[in-house]
Amino acid sequence: MYWLELAGETDAFAAREAATAATGVDLLAPGIARTGGIDGAHARRLAYTRAAHDAVARTDAAVDAAVAALRAAPLDRSGSVAVRARDVRGTSGVSTEAVERELGSVLVDRGFDVDLDDPDHVLRALFAAGPRAEHDAVAGADGGDADLCALGWVAAEAARDFAPDPTDRPFFQPGSMAPVDARAYANLAGAAPGRTLLDPMCGTGGLPLEAGLVGADAVACDAQAKMADGARRNFRAYLADDADAPSPDWHVARGDATALPLPDDTVDGVAFDAPYGRQSKIARHELADLVAGALAEAARVAPRAVLIADRDWRGPARDAGWTVDAAFERRVHRSLTRHVLVLRREADAGGEADPADISPDADGSLPDRE
Fold first, then answer.
1. In this protein, which residues make up the domain named Ribosomal RNA large subunit methyltransferase K/L-like methyltransferase (predicted)?
2. Which CATH number belongs to the domain containing residue 306 in this structure?
3. Which of 8, 79, 235, 278 is most buried (most C-beta within 10 Å)?
4. Cβ contacts of residue 117 below 8 Å, gap of 6+?
């Protein structure tokens, strides 16, 4: 079992993204979830998970309870250690300094050497209290009260290797999506090495760029030549081969999202940020026709999709042949809340992430733990 240390302020969304790298994700407390197994390489590519920790013990969010739990827990490690405590979002009120001192003493008593600068192993102590998030598509997100300390060895930490901020790229347009969000949406659409992700309304290319950075092949289209050319510039800057690893393949074309120049079932996932209300006329399409047509085309070429928009498009998504696995509302600022639909083609509905996503591998993936 592993504890997942979530990031951001929307735990249900973070847990859902984490489920693309883990099995049986269950929200336990603000900022903390658990999983029975995780792909460590994929976990390092997540946007809204800080780290995965190999579970040692779980108890109440109090220093004495954590000390007692650590004393009683089996410890299958050797070498030097350090303790790092975190009061998640300041919800538990514990003193992290006291936690680190007391838990460090327990480890010394059990024969470990403490090395605060370069330890062989780091024991993470996560404290959280308060209500869990509520969401009907996320296990454990029931709004119930939590009071929890989760102790675990750090097993994988997020690389946070996003593309630069949109304003720092060769091509920029106002309204570009933050890299951390683009990464999360790409992950939810199935981006991973050996897969291909399509963005049929790519704009400056932020979504497929993040897909490429996690190792997926990227296909991008936009109706405006200016955007297609700009996305190419950004891809050339950040998806170029380097001395350590080849870049994934990428392709950019000017094209209509409602009439994609692709055969059926060409890609593994689709993710797109639909035009917002202020842009309600796009070329020859009204916004509703554009989104409905893009959803229908997405269902023709891929088994899964993520739609981001300024409104709820669940009705047109179902009409286009999609099952809505999850829907989220994510506040960006006072005048914009993004509606996010996680979609699975009706003919393919009924499952979670592919088992291949959660398998140990020589690249540093973690074994399943029970």
1. 168-308
2. 3.40.50.150
3. 235
4. none
Token output for 278:
């202020």
Identity at 151, one-letter amino acid code: L
pLDDT, tens digit (0-9, with 9 covering 90-100), for 132-142: 999 999 999 99
Range of 204's domain?
Answer: 166-348
In terms of domains, do 328 and 290 share one? yes
Task: Spell out the residues 6+ positions from residue 101 whose beta carbon is closer than 8 angstroms to its own.
Answer: none
Read off the pLDDT of residues 169-207 as tens digits, 9 standing for 90 and up: 999 999 899 999 999 999 999 999 999 999 999 999 999
**Is the entire prediction scored with pTM above 0.85?**
yes
Same domain, 172 and 23: no
Distance between CA atoms of residues 70 and 299, nearest Å: 50
Element containing residue 82 per DSSP (H, E): strand 80-87
Phi then psi for residue 140, to 5 deg, are: 85, -10
353 class by beta-carbon count within 10 Å (0-12 exposed, 13-18 middle, 19+ buried): middle
Do 333 and 184 lie in one domain? The reply is yes
Residue at 145: amino acid letter:
D
Q: Which residues of 48-81 are buried (b: 16+ CB within 10 A; e: fewer)?
A: bbbbbbbbbbbbebbbeebbebbeebebeeeebb
